[in-house]
Design a protein that fits this description.
The protein has helices at residues 2-36, 41-68, 85-90; strands at residues 71-74, 80-81, 93-94, 97-101, 108-114. It has 116 residues and is of the alpha+beta class. Strand 4 and strand 5 (108-114) form a beta hairpin. Helix 1 (2-36) packs antiparallel against helix 2 (41-68). It has two domains: 1-69; 71-116, no CATH class.
Length: 116
């Protein structure tokens, strides 16, 4: 259990680093594309489109990583579970807290991410 908690914590750090790096790269690439947009609008549009698609794919991968690392704990009944990818993807969230239905009490509640 101690190893699992340590491994999950390391994956959280990796997820955060990848997310921050991808966000910075996206902003930089879009900024550079904006600089060349006046001279080459088609190229700038292509660069922005490709960078947006890449950023979107990275975000989907990070969502999958968040789904499988650790557990979500229901605030009402304290049940820990791993939700489906679709539940994580489509639920409202604030940071690592998501509003999802609990499989035990069947109430839609805000559920916190816990490592173990």
């Amino acid at each position: 259990m101690k190893n699992e908690k340590k491994f999950n914590k390391e994956l959280f750090i990796v997820e955060a680093v990848i997310g921050i790096a991808a966000s910075i790269m996206f902003i930089v690439v879009v900024g550079l594309a904006a600089l060349i947009a006046e001279k080459e609008p088609a190229v700038a549009g292509l660069i922005i489109g490709v960078s947006f698609l890449s950023f979107f794919v990275v975000c989907l991968g990070l969502t999958k990583m968040e789904q499988i690392v650790g557990y979500y704990q229901c605030i009402k009944c304290r049940h820990k579970h791993v939700p489906t990818y679709n539940e994580v993807l489509w639920s409202m969230h604030l940071g690592r807290t998501r509003r999802m239905p609990c499989p035990k009490c069947h109430k839609k509640t805000w559920q916190r991410k816990v490592l173990s």
